[in-house]
Amino acid sequence: MASHSIAEQIIQDIVSVIRGVEGVKHVARKLPTRDEIEDIPNTQLPYVAVTNDLPRPQSWGSDVNRYNRRVQSDLPLEVILYVQRTDQALALILSLADDIWKAVLADPERGGLAVATRVEPGEVGHFAPLIAARIGITVTYFHNGGSI
After folding, report:
1. CB-based contacts of 55, cutoff 8 Å, min separation 6
2. pTM above the 0.70 mark?
3. Residue ranges of the domains in the chain?
């Protein structure tokens, strides 16, 4: 995505917000491979990966010229939270997921870039030697028909 696109600005805002959550040690913009998961040092845990799909247009404005139309789109993001497998791992995941949830929803309009932000809980998975939890985020925003 172009660094100046509204979608990219929204993603950067979400990443910045998650970086500010107390207890999160590292935030990356890509999912780690299986080998990378095994090599994440304890000093970077809890580790958060933020990924996104392409925006999904929901409605188009009525202008004749498609480049001048205002388009409402949903931008789906996925946040994967990795923690060290310990007796307290699930409690830590719940606590950090709650803090991430609150931080992301503190500004649902993403500083004026969006009209809404939704957060959806996901599942917990085991990726030895780590445990991971998924959080889904969908940001609804407007843009013109010639960009995302």
Report:
1. 7, 73, 74, 75, 143, 148
2. yes
3. 6-144
